[in-house]
Write a structure and sequence with these properties.
Helix 1 runs parallel beside helix 6, helix 4 packs parallel to helix 7 and helix 5 runs antiparallel to helix 6. The chain is mainly alpha-helical. The longest helix is centred in the middle third of the chain and has 54 residues. Helix content is 55%, strand content 3%. The chain is elongated, with a radius of gyration of 27 Å. The chain has seven helices and two strands; from the N terminus they run H-H-H-E-H-H-H-E-H.
Length: 250
């Protein structure tokens, strides 16, 4: 049915909200982890590098600067390592936040499925009545349904974004406490440099303060409240990823 096909991409966008709980659980919040490294191999369509002679010609010469006055050398590094993802996974407060967000997204996904079924039923009714409607009547009904689909999609995207925002606000409280605890644990051990464990090729257990940080954050911050998920005027919305659901509305 041509009319159904015209609306299918929008319905897919509404239906994509049903995958929101899994998306929140699987996404990497990042916290204050360093950015991931670039891909080891360039894509096949990447342009060929410039010839070496041309590249060298474009590099300016290194200026000769006068030496600066001698300054005090940095202190001897006393190093610790920490796994922030492991801390967040074991944090009872973070677990509680994710549980609340998952519940809200599951409820929203059920509403999205009901809305999608309602729109599909209205589409089917228009198709059934097509032969009895004038062109003007048909266009009026189709336009009304287009408006309903657009409003429904916008509403669910905004509500899903509001849920995400409330979760990030709660996680932000945990991050702030985590930074203070890391400083506290490092100072207690005389450490002046704490590295992300995921970025260290080799270390011994004596450097690792992950378990100590987990114990302290669960003691000081066993839970945090998740604020209400409120749609605000002008709120920026990131549409749900539809790449894996393109065939759902066909």
């Amino acid at each position: 049915m041509a009319f159904f096909t015209r609306f299918s991409p929008v319905l897919v966008a509404v239906a994509a909200l049903s995958a929101a709980p899994a998306a929140f659980a699987q996404s990497s919040p990042g916290y204050f982890m360093p950015p991931s490294q670039a891909p080891a191999h360039a894509p096949a369509h990447a342009p060929a590098p410039a010839p070496q002679a041309q590249a060298q010609a474009q590099v300016p010469s290194i200026p000769q600067l006068p030496a600066l006055p001698k300054g005090a050398p940095p202190p001897v590094a006393v190093i610790g390592v920490l796994s922030v993802p492991e801390v967040m996974q074991k944090s009872t407060a973070a677990q509680g936040v994710q549980a609340v967000i998952r519940q809200r997204q599951e409820a929203l996904a059920k509403e999205a499925q009901a809305a999608r079924a309602k729109i599909q039923a209205e589409q089917a009714q228009i198709e059934a009545d097509r032969s009895t409607l004038t062109d003007a009547q048909l266009e009026t009904k189709e336009q009304a349904l287009r408006d309903e689909v657009a409003a429904t999609q916008t509403s669910f995207q905004e509500r899903n974004q509001a849920i995400q925002n409330s979760g990030q606000a709660a996680l932000g409280i945990i991050e702030s406490e985590l930074i203070a605890i890391i400083r506290q644990e490092a100072e207690a051990r005389g450490m002046n440099l704490v590295l992300h464990r995921e970025q260290v090729a080799l270390n011994v257990d004596a450097f690792d303060i992950t378990n100590a940080v987990v114990a302290q954050i669960n003691k000081l911050l066993p839970s945090v409240p998740v604020p209400p998920s409120v749609v605000t005027p002008g709120m920026a919305v990131n549409p749900p990823d539809q790449s894996g659901d393109q065939g759902a509305g066909q």
